[in-house]
Amino acid sequence: MTALARRRLLAAVALTPLAAWAPTASAQGLPDRPIRLIVGFPPGTGPDLVARVLAQRLAEQLRQQVIVDNRAGAGGQIAAQAVARAAPDGTTLLLGEVGSIAIAPAAFEKLPYAPARELAGISEAVRSDFLFVVPATSPHASLAAFVKAARLRGDRTNLATFGAGTPGHFAADMLGEAAGFTVEPVHYRATGDAVTAIIAGDVAGAFVSTALGLAQIRGGRMRALATTAPARLAALPEVQTFAEAGWPALDVSAWFMLMAPAGTPAALLDLLQRQTVGALQHPETRTKLSEAGFSITGSSRPEAERLLVAEARRWAGVVRSSGFKGD
User: Which pTM was predicted?
Assistant: First the structure.
């Protein structure tokens, strides 16, 4: 074989897998430009981790660049509004979550977007239960001891939240009501500020997502007293569930869903749903997200839409019962 023929053969072999592997995203209907995955929380947080792991895998599968765009602020509302206003062509996506999608419409009368009308569910990606944590320096080693002290104190017990109207805010109110003590929610605009306050002992405790809490607990900066999960966590087998403690109604969890602007063609939504489920089923993806404290879902589009309807109804009742008004 001549040198020229050998070079041609090698070139053909190199190109064969590329052509046979899969059609490009643009060939499947997506515009041939980068996809933006907008997430409403800053880099380094649990939602940001989910977005980056998912973006990396989607980029490989779609063979199209997927850029994570952090639009932190207002409990995810800034990000949700940005996607609600975007062109419905499949290139602007949202990692939506329970706070800005299911809770905010009931909690804020002047919400600048309407999730039910302006956003379409693609697939629930992951879910994270909550941990009730106290500073590592707290004198309370159990939930029972914490509640007893809160009742005896008589005045309000300060609990940090990651913003007014967020799941952790309502979970704190629910705990106070169920356990018989008065909660004073201390709202922090930035995740880092709330974490710092908890670690420093500026507040008595807080509800944090399992994904966030695990890192702080493993680092010896926080102590978990209970989990909202239905069963004890493998990563924290010594931590009881709220059901075990006698408060089964505290079943708050945070879900994260890939979403697109309403009006996005059904064919594109179906494509993105299939690719999202495929990305979540990848062993490396499952390992990274599971180790970070997330439960992997990967739902169908009808399942995602049913979840949105059910959660909006549920949280409307919780907000109404609490009397909370965000504006």
Answer: 0.84
